[in-house]
């Protein structure tokens, strides 16, 4: 009973985390700014618009400070503060524009932080003015309406006009703040996209496993990303290996502890959201030498027919009981140590044997071959 309850709790946590990951991907990792506009083009246009608007506002603020001699200390301080904020946003908008054009992650990240900071400043200013309109100024305007207008009906119309003006201000301020926050989200989305593109380039250079991204993992079906279901580790000989069994636990228990779980997870953990798809281990004795192979479907956007070509997951030649180890540098199927009964002919492998050449890191969209 206790084990069943623990299993249900684990499944619930897995589903909850899966939902959060889906929301995060939908908000921050899609490749569209709005409608059919690519996020990169949207960030370029938005940064240019921010540059023009903030530059114009900064010029107005600094001109008012320099030309208007009737400002008191409080008003002058407000104009100076606004001028500093708008000038800084204009400079960082230039940085964001250049970063979006040349795909410079650090530039776009700085611009993204500037958008969030500017949103918070505008939120504070808009909230303050709305408070003033609804309280102090509203009380003064109410007294003015009552003192200047004696007719009760006309007084009601005057107060209604003031309330309408406050509602117009609140609606405009809320709409502008929502647009600014949406722009900050889109800049964050482009930061994720640039980061992902850099990971792809690094993965191709290092020969890391890649997979074709589909709509199921937050992409648009036209990109290639890192194989998310792997944990990388190094054996005593300095050889790099990739283990997909321990990978789902990496976020929960850390990479070092996740390595201890290689080959030790139940099928249901993968089927109930822990790994994003079904995973079935298979084991077979082949002429005295144990071979392991794994087959799965719908893992991180890799369809079932591409899974064998993508993984070649097996353990042999002293690799122990791990059914899901993929060597990073060698893909040979050396059968040293097998019994003499095997000389009559090779046994039928559970999964198609890889070629003797290094396995290519990426496939075309249709899975037909390397590109």
Automatic annotation (TrEMBL):
Region listing for Disordered, in residue ranges: 253-371
Keyword Transmembrane on entry: yes
Record's compositionally biased regions (Low complexity): 347-358
Keywords carried by this UniProt record: Membrane, Transmembrane, Transmembrane helix
Biased composition (Basic and acidic residues): 296-315
Membrane-crossing residue ranges in chain numbering: 41-65, 77-101, 113-134, 168-191
Protein known as: Uncharacterized protein
The species this protein was found in: Heterobasidion irregulare (strain TC 32-1)
């Amino acid at each position: 009973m206790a084990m069943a309850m623990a299993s249900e709790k684990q499944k619930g946590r897995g589903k909850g985390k899966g939902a959060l990951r889906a929301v995060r991907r939908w908000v921050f990792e899609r490749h569209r700014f709005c409608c059919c506009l690519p996020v990169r083009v949207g960030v370029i246009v938005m940064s240019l618009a921010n540059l023009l608007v903030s530059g114009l506002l900064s010029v107005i603020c600094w001109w008012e400070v320099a030309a208007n001699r009737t400002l008191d200390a409080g008003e002058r301080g407000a104009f100076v503060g606004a001028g500093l904020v708008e000038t800084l946003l204009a400079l960082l908008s230039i940085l964001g524009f250049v970063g979006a054009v040349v795909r410079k992650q650090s530039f776009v990240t700085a611009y993204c932080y500037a958008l969030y900071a500017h949103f918070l400043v505008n939120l504070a200013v808009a909230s303050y003015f709305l408070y003033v309109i609804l309280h102090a100024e509203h009380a003064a305007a109410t007294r003015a309406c009552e003192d200047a207008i004696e007719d009760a009906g006309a007084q009601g119309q005057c107060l209604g006009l003031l309330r309408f003006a406050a509602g117009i201000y609140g609606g405009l301020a809320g709409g502008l703040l929502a647009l600014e926050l949406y722009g900050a989200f889109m800049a964050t989305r482009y930061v994720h996209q640039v980061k992902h593109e850099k990971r792809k380039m690094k993965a191709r250079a290092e020969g890391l496993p890649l997979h074709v991204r589909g709509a199921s993992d937050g992409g648009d079906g036209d990109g290639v990303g890192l194989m998310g279901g792997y944990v990388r580790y190094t054996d005593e000989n300095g050889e790099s290996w990739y283990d997909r069994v321990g990978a789902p636990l990496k976020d929960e228990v850390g990479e070092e502890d996740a390595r201890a779980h290689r080959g030790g997870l139940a099928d249901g953990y993968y089927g109930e959201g822990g790994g994003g798809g079904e995973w079935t281990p298979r084991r077979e004795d082949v002429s005295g030498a144990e071979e392991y192979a794994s087959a799965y479907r719908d893992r991180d956007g890799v369809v079932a027919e591409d899974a064998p070509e993508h993984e070649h997951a097996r353990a042999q030649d002293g690799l122990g009981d791990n059914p899901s180890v993929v060597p990073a540098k060698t893909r040979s199927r050396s059968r040293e140590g097998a019994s003499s009964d095997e000389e009559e002919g090779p046994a039928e492998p559970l999964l198609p044997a890889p070629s003797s050449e290094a396995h290519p890191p990426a496939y075309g969209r249709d899975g037909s071959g390397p590109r």
